[in-house]
Amino acid sequence: MVNEQAIDWEAVRCFVEVARRGSLSEAANELGLSIPTISRRIDGLEAQLELLLLRRGPRGAHLTEAGHAILQVAEPGARQLSQIARRARALQDGPNLPSVRISATEAVIADVLAPRLANLRAQDASICIDLEVSNDIANLNAGRTDMAIRMVRPQEETLIARRLPVIRLGLFASPDYLRGKALDRLVLQDEHLLWLDRQYGDIAENLWLKAQGLDATIRFCSSSVRSLLNAAVAGVGIAPLPAFAALQAGLIEIPLRILPDRQPWLVFHRDTKTNARLQLVRDWIVTCFKDALAEA
Fold it and tell me: Which H helix or E strand runs over 181?
């Protein structure tokens, strides 16, 4: 017998997203989760319901007859439940308003937002900000985050995505590392590359690296862009970095190859669109990006 109280609603959300897209990888990309996490949650949901909901294979994920039936009630239910926490926060008022939670990558938080918090405080000293390093859209949908900055535009109907200034990427190294080297004659296959950890999957930088056949030249990997920047500043090698942060750190750009730019998006729920306090914060984020990226 199914225990209604035991149903994992995060798993329901994963199931709905996979059902909508017909692909675990696309659902994982949309939710900011790994494929194994998505698969594990759906396995758990199927066990709880004692039903096979999806047939998963190399050509995608397809709903079973039971899956179609469950999707009809799960899709609107998941959408409504995701709004409860957010609606409760929107209804709060009084002198002790909750912090505005912003989710973004480490580099965006450290180099774009945090240095400019004083500008926001000058506009409204009562606003408290909570900066969260995360790539997980699930926190936004669950109402635990007010807005997120993501490098992939989400397709959810409940979300609004506002385009931010493009982040230019480049290959950078320290003057010490480049001493005695001719920039216009560098052969990257002969250099030491510092790169993002493979956990990021098929992001633009990793696809570019593979296309150039440069995997064997990697000497240091990290999931932290700040770690790559610090290693490059220390003269360890050449790293793919946001141009604005690398130039500010005194690094020199390698002109041999051009990495694809990254398009960031400011993502928030439709039901917060008219909230004046959150609108002020969103406008501040846009200004932060314009100011930070102007130098690059």
Answer: none
- Cα separation, 231 vs 166, whole angstroms: 25
Is 232 in contact with 250 (CB distance < 8 Å)? no
Indicate the angle between helix axes 35-49 and 24-31, nearest 10 degrees. Answer: 110
Paired residues of 61 in beta bridges: 56
Identify the bridge partners of residue 129 per DSSP, sorted by sequence position: 100
- In this structure, what token pair is assigned to residue 292? 């930070």
**For the chain, how far is it from start to end, CA to CA, in angstroms?**
60
Total residues found in the chain within this entry: 296
User: 214 CB contacts (<8 Å, ≥6 apart)?
Assistant: 188, 189, 193
| Farthest-apart Cα atoms in the chain, separation | 73
Residue owning tokens 């216009």: 184
**Rg, C-alpha atoms of the chain:** 22
pLDDT tens digit at each of 296 positions of the chain: 555 556 778 888 889 889 988 888 888 877 778 888 899 999 999 998 989 999 988 888 899 999 999 888 888 766 666 556 555 655 554 445 678 999 998 889 999 999 999 999 999 888 999 999 876 654 555 557 899 999 888 877 788 999 999 999 999 999 999 999 998 888 888 999 999 887 766 777 888 888 888 888 899 999 889 999 999 999 999 999 999 999 999 999 998 767 888 899 999 988 888 888 899 999 999 999 999 988 66
Q: How far apart are CA 197 and CA 225, in angstroms?
A: 10
Annotate 10-32 with b (16+ C-beta within 10 A) or e (fewer): bbbbbbbbbbebebbbbbbbbbb
pTM value surpassing 0.85: no
> Which run of H or of E encompasses 239?
strand 239-242
The 3-state DSSP class for residue 169 equals strand
